Amino acid sequence: MPVRVALIGAGRIGASHAEVLARRVPEADLVAVVDPRPGAADLVAGPLGATALTSVDDVLADPAVDAVVVAAATTAHHDLITTAAAAGKHVFCEKPAGLSLAEIDAARTATADAGVVFQVGFNRRFAADFAAAHELITGGRIGEVQLMRSLTRDPGTGPADPGSVPLWTIFTQTLIHDFDTLNWLNPGAHAVDVLATADALIAPGHRESGHLDTAVVVIRYSNGAIAIAEASFAAAYGYDVRGEIFGSGGMVTMGEGATTALRLHDIAGRAAFTSRSDTDLMIGSYTGELAEFCRAIQEKRPAAVTGDDAWAAYAIAQACIDSMTSGGRVAVAR
Amino acid sequence: MPVRVALIGAGRIGASHAEVLARRVPEADLVAVVDPRPGAADLVAGPLGATALTSVDDVLADPAVDAVVVAAATTAHHDLITTAAAAGKHVFCEKPAGLSLAEIDAARTATADAGVVFQVGFNRRFAADFAAAHELITGGRIGEVQLMRSLTRDPGTGPADPGSVPLWTIFTQTLIHDFDTLNWLNPGAHAVDVLATADALIAPGHRESGHLDTAVVVIRYSNGAIAIAEASFAAAYGYDVRGEIFGSGGMVTMGEGATTALRLHDIAGRAAFTSRSDTDLMIGSYTGELAEFCRAIQEKRPAAVTGDDAWAAYAIAQACIDSMTSGGRVAVAR
Amino acid sequence: MPVRVALIGAGRIGASHAEVLARRVPEADLVAVVDPRPGAADLVAGPLGATALTSVDDVLADPAVDAVVVAAATTAHHDLITTAAAAGKHVFCEKPAGLSLAEIDAARTATADAGVVFQVGFNRRFAADFAAAHELITGGRIGEVQLMRSLTRDPGTGPADPGSVPLWTIFTQTLIHDFDTLNWLNPGAHAVDVLATADALIAPGHRESGHLDTAVVVIRYSNGAIAIAEASFAAAYGYDVRGEIFGSGGMVTMGEGATTALRLHDIAGRAAFTSRSDTDLMIGSYTGELAEFCRAIQEKRPAAVTGDDAWAAYAIAQACIDSMTSGGRVAVAR
Amino acid sequence: MPVRVALIGAGRIGASHAEVLARRVPEADLVAVVDPRPGAADLVAGPLGATALTSVDDVLADPAVDAVVVAAATTAHHDLITTAAAAGKHVFCEKPAGLSLAEIDAARTATADAGVVFQVGFNRRFAADFAAAHELITGGRIGEVQLMRSLTRDPGTGPADPGSVPLWTIFTQTLIHDFDTLNWLNPGAHAVDVLATADALIAPGHRESGHLDTAVVVIRYSNGAIAIAEASFAAAYGYDVRGEIFGSGGMVTMGEGATTALRLHDIAGRAAFTSRSDTDLMIGSYTGELAEFCRAIQEKRPAAVTGDDAWAAYAIAQACIDSMTSGGRVAVAR
């Protein structure tokens, strides 16, 4: 029995999730798309044979909806999670699951109390190479983890209006992927403290106002492992998502960037083309995470990414914010 | 309006195609799976919500079926194509579309006369890297094509019973993919003659009975380009599907073999894992070809791979067979 | 006219440098090898047709010696540099050129006062890929430098006796290569402050005594660039020397690790063999730096790596030591 | 005791060999450079401290010369080998060692009778990746050899005056490297027959006069292995020298083409720079072959590449010429 899913938020990523739910996840049945903006839901729902709605209440009241996938504005995440949970709906929410540790904790509690599945959109865990790395690491193939690196660089020339990007976005929305990746690829250990270094290098004019676009974070883990998380809002050569886990017995590296295995050899040398679109580069992992969400519901078990994971990643982001303020190392909340 | 498709032949590749049609091609609606073997169709159709049937006649008589995808035994291809065409059904058929040039010509004529879409399963055209190569070549990016290479190597240790593999299979079923690839990547030119060299190197005991498992074919094209097609039934390191097109202005290379971008660095060096399963390695191209089939039907146009393409590739295979018999170069029929 | 060189210190790296001077650098004439240990110099000098000596004084007094290459114990570097300079000999010295900023400053002053060429063994600048990166960066090919990474990992399982490794070696002898590389690949900028994170992860038993084997350093530069330098004393997969410079216009990556272009494809996947020997991996850059030294002497100009470079790299190492003590960010001396 | 070598022929490759002998091969002492053209030898010999001569007779009569390295015009190879052997000089000769099987046989006999070392310039055997492949193959690492490929493509846009290139050059001077490589990497087997396909695709105007610039050769070996040798005189992307040996237990691939490990990632994608100069790309193998020659002399043993190898490779080239004439498969002389 497929899971009957309503998608909330028909923006760019919402449209991609809707298409994935309707066409690529057999365990899902996309029944509705909700967006308060007139016509927005129709554009997405129409071609996929789903119902377009403007009110979340209609979805939450509908017994024919089992679960919601939240791709609305980040500021709305927390409320949507708690009200959906209260209505007995399973919840998948794009990261971050809230705007503070308190909000994420509340979301975690609300979903746990309601007994629903709660999964956060840390899609990198479902990328084929990162998943294979996790399997090798948990199988002991690289020994004790000692050094880690995870990075996220957005393609292009940076935000059109850097000043409109919420403060600390680089930590709470970009690097949060890397924080979860690092936590997950160092199983059994937890982040102890962080030291963040960040700046406005792409748009130096916004340095004073604190709109950071480039960051490097050093995280120490309870097993001694030292991790680096790196982000930039503007990679000229396209999306760049990589990982490197170095252990006493070896190393795994992940992330490639080439769109296909094609290589062009010409007067300029040998070239691989690189990806400019996240929904192209990451479609496999978007599919994987939504399939996992549906399967967890079907199998009445917690999803592979839990509210605890959301909290733990956000705790690192929060420590980064504090580290930027204090200039020093900051302990990570547990 | 999705295309209502019946799948004929619930074997290994049929099961994969059924799953692709049901779950990965939104333009398709898998309505039925047909297999004369008791219970075979049920196993495939059940989980996909399609009807299981044992008789093709039921499908051909059903006005609610728009198209058939033929994944039955090769010996049945020709009859299924012609009877389906006569019933007004669009036809996608796994390669080869028949067991002789005459059969393929008859299939081409029957589908043309019936005015239905006819597409043959040359899936390599839909692999992302080969498709990108085609785009670059047709865009003039590598100049005049001069040297070409296409190869197919099956993973593992070879057929369990080499004696049961039909004679000339390496040309008519394996290398036919490479013949089509070469024809397609040398646009505007046609194969002039071939010289085949083949042997039983994996199972030398079957050399006398003619069960060839290793082959190299040299093809000369009308624009002077010299092409090599290579095949082996047993690659220890997994599936190996590659291409290399060299022109006056540069070269494109395709085919990678690594399952993911993961690299494991350990005492043995740096390793990439390779693929052992065609339905894993090629799922993207299987999806692409079936989506193209459905779109061609929806848009009332010929598919990207036509009966003429099927005929042209088989003409090379036939010339290979003749070349093996004569020992010399053999002209390719036009 | 080849430069007449005496090599001081017939240890492992000294033997390599002697062979390079005698056989690979046509601008050099290896005239003597000096080592106070009985017989040590003979072993190296004999096969190369050089004179074996036990006293540095003999070399310094000999007018037929133009230059010395110092590969003696690190503790002796400073004295050897200053006495050689006083004797009017040009000096190439393995890194570090002293055991403190004061020593390196004295060496820099002594050689400047004597008017001799003084070069420090930052060989990474002469590796083909790093040299090509430098050319692209100085040519503006990647725009403004924003993020940098340089790493050094030694092959194997770590020092046989971690307790015998001098304290802070990871900063003053290992990462000093990376500090110079980062300084050099960010032309026109200087290091502002550092924050060091280091631990004994390979030999945790030596943590208390401060014998660090794993380190991550974050360096902020005057142009805003944020750099990471990483080191480990034990990489299971062999020597690992890499660099990555990310700018507003693109990125260069350096370091490969594979010993040759050979790839082995077998049941385990596709493998590249990796290097376990520095004198193998780096022989090209050792040759390059010694050739540069001789050419600078012949052309009566400063060498490409100067005493100022030695001082600047050591200043970062010193700041790392201070950062480890204070736990916070430390300004880099200028 | 270094081998005292005279270099004959101060052309482009002669100049490279002279520099290698003088500066990179410690086992060699370059004593003279001979070239009949006034001043040619001086240009090469001067900077290397060797004597410049215009007459080969002076070298052959000089007891202080142990060996000659022949880099003269191909037409002179045979005479130089036989007269040098008669004078008791060891001989290294660029490929091919003559202009016919008879000439090469005579050279082989003359050197054997004189008891001197005779080595032919099949430098590919000394490239690091090809040498590693040979070691793996002879160690049984890829099982029984079944399919082989070796290719040589020259960089650039082809010969300035295609009509001045001697007929059959592509077989006797270019592919002869590949023929030797294939023979060597299929140890214990010998070439049985060949089928050559070649054309003038770069300079089609010279097709009629037989100046071939593009060739594909299929060679069958006594162990059943099927080999392909490919050549082109004009690769837009630079030198391309690759090999691929496929066996029952795995595959080795050789040849990379990138000048260094540097990768440039920018708006165009990810690029590796490729090599345009053979003396850059192959300097390692040129050094290796000349070092082997000197060591064989010092150790009074045959060199790793013998007159028999020269003959066997030329026998394939001769069979290619015959195959082009007859249009069919031609047996390879033994």
Automatic annotation (TrEMBL), chains A, B, C, D:
The keyword Coiled coil does not apply. Residues 3-122 form the Gfo/Idh/MocA-like oxidoreductase N-terminal domain. Residues 135-332 form the Gfo/Idh/MocA-like oxidoreductase C-terminal domain. Keywords: Oxidoreductase. The keyword Oxidoreductase applies. Gene3D superfamilies: Dihydrodipicolinate Reductase, domain 2, NAD(P)-binding Rossmann-like Domain. It comes from the Bacteria. Signal peptide: none annotated. PANTHER family: BINDING ROSSMANN FOLD OXIDOREDUCTASE, PUTATIVE (AFU_ORTHOLOGUE AFUA_2G10240)-RELATED, NAD(P)-BINDING ROSSMANN-FOLD SUPERFAMILY PROTEIN-RELATED. Belongs to the Gfo/Idh/MocA family. This is Dehydrogenase. It comes from Actinoplanes couchii.
